[in-house]
Design a protein that fits this description.
This protein is an alpha/beta fold. The chain is about 30% helix and about 20% strand.
Amino acid sequence: MQRHGCAIFGQLAHAGAIHRSTADGTLGVPYAPSQVRSDRLHVISRAMTRSDFNEIIAAYGDTAVRMKQAGLDGVEILASQNCLPAQFLNPRLNRRKDAYGGSLDNRLRFLREIIEAVRDRVGSAIVVGVRISGDEMQAGGTDPEEILEACAILGNEGGLDYLNVIAGGMMRLDSSIHIVPPMAVDHAYLAPLAHAVKQRVPILVFVAGRINQPQQAEEILKAGQADMIGMTRAQIADPELANKAKSGRLDDIRACIACNQACIGHMQMGLGISCIQHPETGREREYETKTPAANPRTVLVAGGGPAGMKAAAVAAERGHRVILCEAGERLGGQALLAQELPGRAEFGGIITNLAREMEHHGVEVRLKTRVERALVEAERADAVVVATGARPWPAEIEGGDEAHVVDAWAVIKGEANVGARVVVADWRCDWIGLGLAEKLARDGCKVTLAVDGYMPGEMLQKYVRDRWIGDIHKLGVEVMPFARLYGADSSTCYLQHVTNGEPIILDEIDTIVTSLGHQSVIDLADELEGWTGEVMMIGDCLAPRTCEEAVLEGLRAGFML
């Protein structure tokens, strides 16, 4: 990294009361200022002794020295998001009666001693900074005014080169979403927190949090709210973001849509990070270099959803002549539906980004054009990529003819007349059920979300899911887990508990909205049986899954052609 003019810092962190498992899967001992309960992780800490203080403070200094010896340019001490130093700042967590508890000055003592130990060990040769949550955004969190006062003290004492302002915490579910904020959170929402700190300190101030475009970063810098901008997911979505900004190619930047699916979602599953829009991230050895095709061919892509768009863009980049046909009036497939739900408009960015990739590489796009075998033969295609997607799974339930049953797509498109009392039957446990419940509740309906699983959004990354569950609760949505749609009549919805088989009966129901998964559309694939050219099936027509698999399979198809 340094060969390319890039500085690299390492973070120094101690989890304190939010420590849980060890390498062998057993529960470790979480050390903290006092014995407290961590609500999110359900662990109880052990109050630190004087010897614990000495050991941990020395460990910060020792680790900083190792980072310096390894050639790093700086170290950043984490006093953010409920890490151990932040726990000392919080009087709810720090109930000590000694020199480390009580007044703000005493509660700040532990962090100041860490800073002193680190600076003493590394000297002035490398940068030393502190990352801190300007607002923990949690019930019982440290008073933001006290955090601001702590920043003013630390920033004026001379031991630090910068403060890195972030938000949220890891001890409670309400604040954990700010660790990696989802798309429902506003862009650049933490800049005012950084600005408040910057007005109180002479050192540099960094800020991050839902900043996904260089234009946003420039606005923060020009307004004097911060001196440097952190952009993590933005550069996972587009590793060339900085180079594109530097060369003025802003329209070519693939903006992060904060879906959290393949980045933090993968990490929390113990998998390598990637991006649903740019699956090359994390797979660079396989897919970053688009080798020109040895024998350029004519490729017909059937379907203008994310799978087809990615396949078309990659195939064209490799030198094939590519025609993408979409039966509808717009590109996007199911992403067009996703962007219509509350707080999900940004998901439509994947359409914009993939359309730009296709345009850049010269894909011919034909809208309102359904691919049939006659068209394949007329275009003399050498290969067909079938990306025809899926349709809603029908509600084949007893009594369904008597009831008012409509599918999710019809509701999202505004094609269904929905009554005042609604049951959303959510088999998929993903964004559709949650989104429908929120939409209908905001429209004034009384909504019951019946989930055929543990919880709504079971298939979603937890920061996305947890915030969404909180949102629908505020809107008065009744959530009923472990509930499978079984039958209906003119005014009753019959559900079945999925673990004990007992009936759940909901009366006075006007409408049942179904989100029961999807059925693959394979008509074209069947029609091409026996055709002599190459046929590839990708995305939901192969098997209904998520946008991540669709785009990845589009990438692979583009490489294989």
